[in-house]
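Pasting two entries for a bug report.
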Amino acid sequence: MTTIPDLGSYQHQDLTISAADYSLLTDLYQLTMAACYVGEGIEQKQASFELFVRRSPENFGYLIAMGLEQALAYLEKLSFTHSQIAALQATGIFAHASDRFWSLLADGKFTGNVWAVPEGTAVFANEPFLRIEAPLWQAQLIETYLLNTLNYQTLIATRAARLRDVAGEQAKLLEFGTRRAFSPQGALWAARAALAGGLDATSNVLAALQLGQQPSGTMAHALVMALSAMEGSEAEAFTAFHRYFPGAPLLIDTYDTIAAAEQLAIKVKTGEMELSGVRLDSGDLISLSQQVRSLLPNVPIVASGDLDEWEIARLKAAGAAIDGYGLGTRLVTGTPVNGVYKLVDIDGIPVMKQSSGKATYPGRKQIFRSFVGGKVKADRLGLITETPLSETPLLQLVMKEGQRVQLPESLAEIRQRTAATVASLPEETRRLTNPVALQVEISAGLQKLTEETKELTAKNAKGVK
């Protein structure tokens, strides 16, 4: 029978999390590897890790990098408390670890450099959108948290950018995904990434207020049913809601969508009611929206209910009379972005992974992007020592020796960059079905270093000096 160690005061069953807990929000092997590095005396060797995706999710022609702000905030605050260290020691797992390991945790903080592409920038397979240059133990320890925030927010921002691209600039796009997100923290990140990726507002009150935004929403069927039952009719339910929220959008498909629209049309026409919008959440959205539009010609119609970019494209092609969309489940869930975080240089020695299907490129790299007429022409993946050839280097220094070197960007700035980035991509890269991702050229210098590293690795494997 497994014995559960006494972890002291650090135990709590509610699994709440605060910024102070983030140092332990990691996989065990990050800590055991750090302890091993200390034992071998190499923990302070300078290491470079790069975060990238090997391949994009199916039918994604590009990815929008997102999550950098939360990554930097995490690195700024990284530290271990006495109670956290005591809890780790109580597990018994680290019984053979050096005392220096505990001293390192007690006194340590992130002291490295961070290079990253700005949030809202399109990236492609094998292009690093973040690089960490730091003492080995630090660079190793932070892998899990960085992948968690960057992978998830990149997924949401990419979906949001695609939704905006399909729906058009005039459509109202609302993030409704909190109840379907994978955790309360995930819901906050999803709301942020969705707004930065192109959506107009979120229904998540906490996320909106923390981000300095106005939360947005309508009502649920429960209110209509409850007030209809108590006050006699759906019309009375709408009147009651408008008593406290004048002109607010109304959900009109609880019972009979067209009957509800007809009654509202009479009140709007006679001036008895002002109405800023109606929401349809079920049924044949094409037919219903067209009928509602004929009854309420000047009232915006918002549709919701498991919508995604493919469904919006279908609705638009079929002539649906819809002015906005509420996006939830399919925005905040779905095929993940499988970003990876790999060592590329240790103590000035380029290294690479050579596993079948998972090989990586060695050395610290830069993405060089070229444009023609404001449109992306090509990307070249090269070494940081290479000179741009009428190209724009994408990776920027955002943190030096543990301190930020740039002010945080506003959501408006990131959203604008996202829109500009998507607009600059080739049409075949933006399409939803069988998109063609930008082909990334591997520079001659990187190709040469890759071959040299392979040869050196092969010699080392055979014990050849």
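Entry 2 (this is the one that rendered wrong in the viewer):
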Amino acid sequence: MKRTLVAEALGTGLLVATVVGSGIMAEGLAAGNDAVA
């Protein structure tokens, strides 16, 4: 049970980091154009 919770937390953390990171990258690459981001 503990191993399952650790794996779930790690996977969720990686997914959140990827989504937030891609949003930050998109905002930087869009150069202020909200339609692109």
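Dev reply: Rendering is fixed now. As a check, the viewer should reflect this: Residues 3 and 22 are 29 Å apart (CA to CA).
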